[in-house]
Amino acid sequence: MTTPTPGAADTQVYRVYIKATPERIWEAITRPEWTARYGYTGLADYDLRPGGAYKVRATEQFKAAGAAGGREVPDVVIEGEVVSADPPRKLVTTFRMLMDPEIAGERATVITHEIKELPGGVCSLTLTHELAGAPRLAALVAGQWEDHGAGGGHAWVLSELKTLLETGKTFAE
Prior knowledge:
By secondary structure, the protein is α+β, with helices and mostly antiparallel strands. The chain has a domain at 11-39 and 86-167: Alpha-D-Glucose-1,6-Bisphosphate, Chain A, domain 4, CATH 3.30.530. Helices cover 28% and strands 32% of the residues. The chain has helices at 22-30, 32-35, 60-68, 101-104, 135-141, 153-167, and strands at residues 11-18, 43-46, 53-57, 76-86, 90-97, 109-118, 122-130. The protein has a 7-stranded antiparallel sheet. The chain is globular and about 45 Å long. The two termini are 28 Å apart.
């Protein structure tokens, strides 16, 4: 990958509004049968207890996309630990991306998902990623490497999650 563009924030906050219940959004974030369908198609596994393991395994589709871009994708692409879980409202995990050796060498970061129910069957989903000490990861999840085949980061993943929950289809369908 290229050198990250200066200016990727140490704390990044993304919010999307989704016409779905908090429970459905929670399931879409925490269950592999959902996470395999949107974003980068990884299989998320959570042990939803404080100190429990969190990891994302690559699907064959994920590996094929990496290979098409000239990158080998490991079996486990993200690892971390559950800091706290309050279904279906809040999930806090540590996060280490393992796909790029330089990013894998950066310190672990923290992601918080907060789901708030609003009137009219709509919820807000706010993702806060604390990225101090991880400048390459900060650039990646900000979407700064999208033009280099690395995807659109958190904004893209949340957009596809919203689309899937509201329409039943992903961007590719």
